[in-house]
Amino acid sequence: MLRQHKLGEADRIITFLTAEHGLVRAVAKGVRRTRSKFGARLEPFAHVDVHFYPGRNLDVITQVHSLNAFSDLIVADYGRYTTACAVLETAERLAGEERAPAQHLHRLTVGALEALAEDRRDRQLILDAFLLRAMSSAGWMPALSVCARCASPGPHRAFHVAAGGAVCVHCRPAGAATPSVGVLDLMEALARGEWDHVLLATPSQRRQATGLTAAHLQWHLERQLRTLPLIERQAPHSLIERPASEGAARTDVPGAGVAVTETA
Ligand SMILES: [Zn+2]
What we know:
- The chain is α+β, with helices and mostly antiparallel strands.
- It has helices at residues 70-75, 78-95, 103-117, 123-138, 183-192, 195-198, 203-227; strands spanning 3-7, 11-18, 22-28, 47-53, 59-68, 158-160, 165-167, 248-253, 258-262.
- Residues 230-264 have low confidence and may be disordered.
- The strands form 3 sheets. Strands 1-2-3-5-4 form a 5-stranded mixed sheet.
- 45% of the residues are buried.
- The chain has one domain (3-263): Recombination protein O, C-terminal domain (de novo design (two linked rop proteins), Up-down Bundle).
- The protein contains 7 helices and 9 strands.
- Helices cover 36% and strands 20% of the residues.
- The chain binds zinc ion.
């Protein structure tokens, strides 16, 4: 579950990131009553199997089964929580239109939340690896080992977000960053999950990789926002064409807005 907001006295609208149907918004009736049949299963970051049926405007949630309990571990620690919020927020923005299938993004999101919940490795490394992989999935992966402009093989020393990543000495635009040796390799290792390599990086290399990753993501998200028609997010999806149900949804975070569902 990604996000929720109140609807009337007792209901909530919940946004899920689902594998089969991408972003899905649906109504949880009575969820704010103390004896709701959904109990705590629709808390933020929850990874759930959700069933819906079509309502007049939004689908209505009929059943929720927890798939695992990592949401408890995430909300129990502020550092985990804020990092997980960043994961969900990015996942929601990269998922694009509602109902566009998002299998890969869903898998990456669940994997990142699990790794955070279990403190499997440094939080920032988990986040950076997720961001790079999610950008790769969206077609925004920065060039790292070849020049973004002329494709000449590296290693290259300059990095320019608008140019698309690493740039050679001939192509580098004014204002390109010059990260330390090893930083672009570290980013490549993060994207590939080569943790043995990643763990050899110095704190300075990690900080630079974090900065370049965030800058690259930010640039693409802002460009995407400028090109998205404002109206798009408001349009209610058609409920008529869809079969009546089933998706396993993962609920993720409130405030961050991504829950994931998969077809059971
Ligand atoms: Zn070049």
